[in-house]
Write a structure and sequence with these properties.
alpha/beta; 6-stranded mixed β-sheet; 12 helices
């Protein structure tokens, strides 16, 4: 099995699953708020990361079970308990190791209670990862603000955080706050949280795992996945499709990873899952060396396509006014002179999984054009297409709905003209 050389580099993971919360009491019943699924979550995620992700994992697993049917209670060994200091030490060792050659990728997975409290005399809230010793009052757990500070100081180039706990969206709020806006461009960071900052996280309908964990186990196991690649964008779509029945909304941040690829798992035939790479085919598009002006038009087009999610944008005008250059500039990135245009051009391309540019100047046959597009979007898997045009269009729509695609068709007037 071929594996990308970056994927072969050192990859460390800290996988945490805590069921046992003896001091965290329910307000009404006063009973401890033990959990059922986190240890199962952590064990299963660790197995996937080890078997398919080439990760060296450290596991902090604190079991607890209370079987009413069998009348048995399973308590953790005292030496297995994880307190705030234990988890902070393990996280710090993961992201700031005492080594001159730190891992290239570090991943933290946490399943357990997540807590959320208002800061003193402020309206802002703070999120926490709860450990066995928390009581919800004096001891709240590992601060997500502290975690962000560790990530900011970390020399690890790829940093991945997966949180299956209540209020886990607080991590993204904290990261986006003013303290962490000065991001180190040498680092690539990728966060997945089970819920927004104000939402609780639930178990899956099967009750075996947390809802997010069960989804991750399904989508990050190459043996269960039919497609070649799952990108940031398709993963968001899969989350929205798969978890829409639950009263929580998982978050993926950032939606576009700007520096480098994120490989979580890898199967046979190069089935990289969760890669940020955009697949591009620019055909005969002009390689512009300079582009001036059109700032307002570029800004408007970018807003329509990225923010307002317009499905179709047509640039019209007399010949020679720069429609082709504008479309290429919009999609290709890195060819403008002004800072704003350069940033705009670089950003829009990375918002998509596939970018395809084709010229219709010579009015190609529609059957040839649609075949070309489908083969590109299917990664050349669709070699024999149906002869029926409606079936071809249905197949094209299938791929357009499966991924974020940017299609740029130049000289479309040539196929719309009379005769």
């Amino acid at each position: 099995m071929y594996i990308d050389k970056y994927y072969q580099m050192s990859r460390d993971a800290l996988v945490v699953g805590i069921n046992f919360y003896p001091f965290l009491k329910d307000v009404q019943t006063k009973q401890p708020k033990h959990l059922r699924t986190p240890t199962e979550d952590a064990t299963a995620i660790a197995q996937v990361l080890e078997n398919h992700g080439n990760f060296l994992t450290q596991k902090l697993i604190v079991p607890y079970s209370n079987s009413t049917e069998e009348g048995t209670i399973t308590l953790p060994n005292p030496e297995d308990l994880v307190n705030v200091e234990d988890l902070e030490t393990a996280i710090k060792r993961l992201f700031i190791p005492n080594s001159n050659t730190p891992a290239k990728t570090a991943l933290l997975f946490f399943s357990g209670h997540g807590l959320r409290k208002k800061k003193h005399d402020e309206e802002l809230t703070q999120g926490y990862l709860a450990t066995c010793d928390v009581d919800g009052n004096q001891r709240l757990g590992v601060s997500l603000s502290w975690l962000c500070e560790i990530l900011e100081k970390s020399p690890v180039r790829q940093q991945i955080i997966l949180l299956d706990c209540c209020y886990s969206g607080e991590l993204i709020n904290t990261w986006q706050s003013w303290q962490f806006k000065k991001n180190n461009n040498k680092q690539t960071r990728f966060f997945i949280t089970a819920s927004r900052d104000f939402e609780v996280a639930y178990n899956s309908p099967t009750g075996k795992y947390g809802a997010l964990t069960e989804f991750l186990l399904e989508k990050l196991n190459p043996e269960r996945h039919a497609e070649d690649i799952v990108t940031n964008h398709t993963f968001i779509n899969l989350i929205n499709q798969g978890l829409h029945i639950l009263s929580q909304r998982p978050l993926v941040f950032p939606e576009t990873v700007e520096s480098g690829k994120i490989y979580l798992t890898c199967g046979k035939n190069n089935k990289f899952l969760l890669s940020s790479e955009t697949r591009e085919d620019w055909g005969t598009a002009t390689d512009l060396n300079a582009f001036f002006g059109r700032t307002k038009e570029l800004k408007d087009l970018s807003q329509w396509i990225i923010e307002e999610r317009c499905k179709l944008v047509i640039i019209v005008g007399m010949g020679g006014v720069g429609k082709t250059s504008l479309s290429v500039k919009l999609g290709k990135g890195g060819i403008g002179k002004t800072d704003f245009s350069l940033k705009l051009a670089q950003n829009i391309k990375d918002e998509f999984d596939y970018v395809l540019w084709r010229s219709l100047f010579n009015a190609p046959k529609f059957s040839l054009l649609i075949t070309d597009i489908i083969q590109f979007l299917s990664n050349q898997k669709e070699t024999e297409l149906p002869e029926n045009l409606n079936e071809q269009i249905s197949k094209l729509l299938h791929y357009l709905r499966s991924s974020r695609c940017l299609l740029l068709l130049d000289n479309i007037d040539k196929v719309l003209s009379v005769n």
